[in-house]
Amino acid sequence: MDLCARFHERHRKWRKLVHFKFSALILTLSPRKGNRPAEAQRCRTSRVYGKSKGMAAHPSNTPPAGTYRGRLAPSPTGHLHLGHARTFWTAQQRAIEHGGVLVLRNEDLDLERCQPEFVSSMLEDLRWFGLQWQEGPDCGGPFAPYSQSSRLSGYGSAFVALQEKGVIYPCNCSRNDILEALTAPHQGEEDPIYPGTCRPLTTSGVLLNLNPTRGGKLTSWRFRVPDGEEIQFVDGRLGPQSFVAGRDFGDFVIWRSDGTPSYQLAVVVDDTLMRITEVVRGSDLLLSTARQLLLYRALNYTPPQFYHCPLVMNDKGERLAKRHEALSLRTMRGKDVRPEQIRATPLFK
Ligand SMILES: [Zn+2]
Q: Ligand 1 centroid to 112 CA: how many Å?
């Protein structure tokens, strides 16, 4: 069974559990181990700290204190482009400079856009470009599995913890509902600030009694942000950063109505369980870092360091996206461009 089909099958079971049996049952779901047929010796150097016992943090998995652990976290939703290549190259350089380990995590939670053929092309293109990782879906490692679609039990545990803490609430607003409820017109790529339509007066003590379906419809769940609180962090490249909850970003979705965790929750859980010490990613995710710091705090997790890379624009000044096929690594490979030529461009200086 291919990756997507397997995910859909697991996802069906999972949705039943999450929406109808909120209790400890979720915790009993055993994680799938990352033992795919291709689980071979592809990683150049494998640093194994101990035998893996599924995805939950296990004492023998603990890397030696002070070990730098970075990650590449591509999504198999299209071909990777120059912008990804540059961010990932920076991530690799930082891991090398720190004598650390680089983890590749396949972020394949997007049910609609996940394409199994993109997983293999993604890994191929990254290797062609010169990236080497020591742990990943193709070679395993002490924190397997390395594909998010196989890591659902960890997200479920975090969801239960947030629910018990009373910091999330169900919401079934569509994007259109939200846009209609806004008093000012919304522009830009960031999600509009949630107007609070479904936000209860208090989130403590009431959620466990709420039925997660409304009018027969499954709901998503939002994290209630502490309005007015300044979220500060020091970025490894950009220096001190500050965002105000409720002004720069509003209550955000941590669990989707399709029964999967949102990006925000999934990466916080994975970066924690995989013992990532520094997250290197594009500066379009600065605001997400502020959101995620709230999740780290609510879940009593220690956050990693953050390093946000500049975004790569095309000649029209647009941010590169997967639709810009001409600048994909795959297209460039097809035109016999060598990775050294790409890495010699000013973009990589
Ligand atoms: Zn709502």
A: 22
Low-confidence ranges of the chain (pLDDT < 70): 1-61, 183-190, 202-217
30 in Cβ contact with 153 (< 8 Å): yes
Measure CA of the first residue to CA of the last residue in the chain; give whole Å: 43
Nearest CA-CA partner of 263 in 220, 214, 213: 220
Nearest to 236, CA basis, from 142, 304, 322: 304
Distance 175 CA to ligand 1 centre (A): 9
DSSP at 43:
S
**Integer Cα distance of 255 and 167 in angstroms:** 13
Measured in Å, residue 219 CA sits from the centre of ligand 1 at: 9
Q: 262 CA to middle of ligand 1, Å?
A: 16
pLDDT in the model for residue 13: 46
Q: What separation in Å is there between the alpha carbon of 122 and the centre of ligand 1?
A: 36
- List CB contacts of 305: < 8 A, sequence separation 6 or more: 236, 277, 278, 279
With beta carbons less than 8 A apart as the criterion, state whether 306 and 233 touch: yes
Find out whether the peptide bond into 145 is cis, omega within 30 degrees of 0. Answer: yes
Tokens 């998503």, located at residue: 220
Rounded distance from Cα 197 to ligand 1 centre (Å): 5
Tell me which residues have their CB within 5 A of the ion that is ligand 1: 171, 173, 197-198
Residue type, 139: C
Query: Quick one: pLDDT at residue 168?
Result: 93
CA of 169 to the centre of ligand 1 (A): 9
**CA torsion, ordered 108, 18, 158, 233, to nearest 10 deg:** 60
Ligand 1 geometric centre to CA of 194 (Å): 8
Q: What is the pLDDT of residue 72?
A: 98
Q: Helix count (H) and strand count (E) of the chain?
A: 10, 11
CA-to-CA distance for 307 and 278, rounded, in angstroms?
7
- 4 C-alpha vs ligand 1 centroid, how far in Å? 29
For residue 315, report the distance from its CA to the centre of ligand 1, in Å: 39
> Residue 188 and residue 184: Cα distance in Å, rounded?
13
pLDDT at 206: 46
